[in-house]
Every structure is written in C-alpha cells, then in structure tokens.
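Recap quiz, item 2
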Amino acid sequence: MAAMTRWLDPDEQRTWRAYLTASRVLMDTLDRELQRDSGMPHAYYEILVQLSEAPGRQLRMSQLAQAAGSSRSRLSHAVARLEAAGWVRREDCPTDRRGQIALLTDEGFATLAAAAPGHVEGVRRHLFDALSPAQVDQLRRISETLADHLTGS
Amino acid sequence: MAAMTRWLDPDEQRTWRAYLTASRVLMDTLDRELQRDSGMPHAYYEILVQLSEAPGRQLRMSQLAQAAGSSRSRLSHAVARLEAAGWVRREDCPTDRRGQIALLTDEGFATLAAAAPGHVEGVRRHLFDALSPAQVDQLRRISETLADHLTGS
DNA sequence: GCGGTTTGGTTGAACATTCAACCATCGGGG
DNA sequence: CCCCGATGGTTGAATGTTCAACCAAACCGC
C-alpha cells in the first residue's frame, strides 16, 4: 500500500522552481558561450579538462567517463568526435587488452588553453559576481551535501 | 587589449566543481526516474505542468516556450511528439492567424496526475531530504538571485 | 585450465536539441 | 493602401544523448 505523497509546501515549490530556472539558464548560457567561442559543448569541454589534469594527460575510458560524469556510451561517441577533431587520441592499454586510453593531444591542449579564459570569465560573471562570499560558501556546502547524498544512496 | 583573466581561486574552483557535479547528478537522477516511471523526459514533464497550470489548460506556443524555458524550435518539436502521444492538442488562435494554441488533453492531464506523485517524491528524497531548513532557504535566495542576475543582464 | 560471470568498451537505432532558413501574418510609417 | 520590418511558428539537417545489444578479455571458482 502506498504512503501518501509528501507534496511540496509553497516554500519548497518556490525553491524548487527557482532552482530549476536558475540552473537551466546558467547552464544554457555557459553552454552557448562555449559553443560560440570554442565550437564545443560544455560536456566536451569537461572531457578535455579532465584529461588535461590527469597525469600524462591521459586516462582510461572508464575513469574518464566517471571523472566527466558521463556514461560509457556517451563518452565513446564523444571521444570519437574529439578524435576526429584531432584533440584526443586513443591508444591500447598495455596492461588490459580490453582497455583503451584516451589522451589529450597538443592540439587539444592548445584548444583548451584558448577556450579556458573565456569560459572562466563566464562562470565568474554569471555565477560568482552575483553572489556574496557567504552565499558562495553556502552554495558549496549545499552542493557537496547533495552530491554526497545522491552518490551515497 | 585584453584584461587578465580573473581565474577562480581554490575555494571558487571547489564550489564550481561541487555545483556542477551536484546539479548534473540530481538532474540525471530525476530525469531517469521520470523516463522509467512515466516514459517522458523532464523537459516534456515541464511542458505538461505549465499547461496544466494555465487557465483553460492552454497557452500560446510562445508563452509556453517561455514558461517551460524552451526555445520555440524545441517546443515545436516537443509538442509534435506530445500531440502524437495524445497528451496535447493544437488549435488555431482566433485572434492572430499566425498563432497556435497548445492545450492539454484529458489524457495528458491524467498522465501528468499519474506521474506527479513519483516525481515529487523524487525531488523530496534527492533534494529536500538532504538539506536543513536553513539550507533550503539559502538555496532559494541563491537561485532567485542568480535567475535575476542572468535574465536581467 | 574450464566455464560462467563480470568488466571495459563499442555500436546502431531511436530520440532530443540546436541552428539556420523559411513562410505567413501582423503592425506601423509613409 | 502599400511596403517593410518585426513577430509567431515550423521545418530539416546536423549534432548530442540514451538505451539495449553486443563482443572480447579478465576474473573467479573449482
């Protein structure tokens, strides 16, 4: 037997709607800026960032998928595109014959280096400039709590 | 001449990463639950919700696009699908021969009513249950500030 | 080392979104 | 009244994402 639905009260409704709108508009804006200035969607930028921060600028496909918050299938398609663009290369993994290693090419690194300043400026303008230092701190705690809660369960 | 990039300091980095992860995982989770339980993506759910709350359960396409945070093109495609599913119907606008009115069918309303409890439960479980009342309040203020900032500029 | 399960990764089809081009109508200024 | 720019909406192609099916290699127990 089903328990009664715990509906949202008016305050929660308002919070949820505001959150939905804000995160949608923020992401849309950053995504469009990145596409306009660097010709890639935010998800692809994330992949390049993760690779650039990995030792040797390379990662196993699975680890890269995890780091970039992507499904393996999605990553597979994405890396195929990034490879076609010359920004990423694939190599066989020496220790596991099933494995593939994605590695950031010099050209990919250069593209990322060119894209980063504009994107960071966008994040600052659209997010941090609007919030007080206290709010930034609150947002960090809230986000970390949520991420823990979601991945923990 | 370009000004120096205002890079993110370590605290800001951490906040931005946490926010990215949390909002991505939250939305992915809710989206997958909605798809599994009701066979529609979150964006389509939003369209049905907006229609259900409009007077007469109908809206002009443009207003609906605005309300659902969608481009007109996207909405056009989406409504075509929703119409094929029998959840929405299109009618000509009597006062503007260019216009189209989208209206929620009874079947669409029933589908929405069936989907809502599960979805709301998901929002509560994945979002509100993880946060303290103070944090919920903070999140609301932050989100409203951001939305204002983004749509204002 | 054999057979079954799990893991790593890819593939193709279905679906969703974006972008630019397009058509029709509306509305305002000569 | 006519023209012209702005508005409302759709379309098709290109691009991304998801889902399920699949293959191969690794791991595990015996």
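The CA atoms of residues 52 and 64 of chain B lie 11 Å apart.
The mean pLDDT of chain B is 96.
End of item.
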